[in-house]
Amino acid sequence: MDVLLKNIIQRKKLFAIDISPGSIKVLEFEKKKDIYKLKNIGEEEIPSSTFIAGIIRQPAVVVEKLKIILEKKNPKKIKTNFAVVIMPDDQIYSQVVSIPKVEKKKIYEALLFQLPNLIPMKEDDIYWTYDILSEEGEMYDIVVTAVIKESADSFIETLKQVKIVPLAFESRAQSALRAITLGNKEEGEYILLDIEKSVTSIAINKKDAIQFSTSFYFGLNQILKTIGEYKKINDAEIQEYLQKDGIETKDEELQKHIDSLFEQVIQELTKAINFYGEDKISKIYLYGETATVKGVLEKIQKSTKVPIEKAKSNIRIYPIPQWEKHEQISPYIPLVGAELINKIEKNIYINLLPQKEKSKAIRNYFLNFSLTTLKLLIFNLIFLSFVFVFLYYTNTQDISNINSEISIYQSQLKNPKYKGVGSTIDTINTNLSSLQKIYSGQYQWSYVVSQIANLLPPNVHLTNLTIENIGKSGRFIWQVSITGTAQNATQILALEKAIVSTSDFSNLTMPISNFQKEVNPGFLMTFTYTQNNNG
Q: pTM of the entire structure?
């Protein structure tokens, strides 16, 4: 099922959703070669009480804000209802484990046995999945990731109310890692330091996956509250103060309060560095709402020798979003990474969407596909019917008019003064007979085209069609030759079967060269069409 869903994700147009304390953000762009064209970017603020401890506590508020975002043109409206959803890191557990190579279908059972040692939660309280990072040597390197059910279920129920179909749930850290490492040639392991409005997460990667993450409560809101209470100023004045001075101040008492806020960040960061080894961590990437505040990076850098830089993405988005113009991309890093989920090759992603929701997403996809195909087929049938009726009516009317004129002329020619023009009449009759055959040929050509159009399987396209009358003694027998392309040989055989099963077509032949190319083969078919009761 996961393989099928991955293929669907690669084919579908998706948009990314990030619901976090204080705001809802969405992003959609499409890839054209190495350029990413911005289709929609939206953001709406939500009260902090709406989203607590990774769970949507007030779904009605989120639904209202999502509807506002989906209705806006930023610069265009979002037309797809399929999405990749970013899950909060404090609700996710991740662990990389090595196991001896077994049959891939038995990996799940092997991991299930070890699950209590990998994830510190009861199996009934989580949704979990895995992906293979490496198959080198005698062992599999596998990343096991789990999300708390209550958190995931709150997202599912909320999105259902706005008819959004999630195809993937992904951790913020995993999404951010994709955005940061795309086009990044640096090797080694990184620390991803995400300081949001009220939650801070520290994650460490192994290759293309997150092998460790931890979260705790600290962020921009605590800084704003501390400055506001100490200075006794309102929110607007706090923002003005931060833009001017940042978190470094000449007021020693205030500076002590601010420094104490960062103690837990520095302690947790130091723990992670010491556990994995300072020599193994090549860089710390800082992002999130708090990363945009003046002086934050510099303060954390003082506590470690590992270089720190603000995270950025190496992709080019046009038109350039406002946050990129002002180098305020930090809060949007996970969103960019999530939207890249189906736009880059060699992409590892850990889809935490529950199995029952994966099944629903697959059914929804095929239902939409079937409805779209049916609408297209009905449109083509209606169009071809109009063409057929028009040609038939026009040809019949022309012949009827000509026959009426012949009758009139024949009556007039009985007059003695027109004697001697019999040979001229014979010539006219011969020409009219030829004209009638031409019209009949047009009708047969239209009929054959409409029949073949109805028989074509999906993704089979014609490039040429010829029809030649090979009948004798006035019989209407036509030799039809078609050439075209298909995605594979199976589709060519399906077209052959459809033609052979049609009563008007017979004697089908095709060369062996139709099956020499496995992918996107060209084909040639020749068969006979005999006019029965259709014309």
A: 0.68
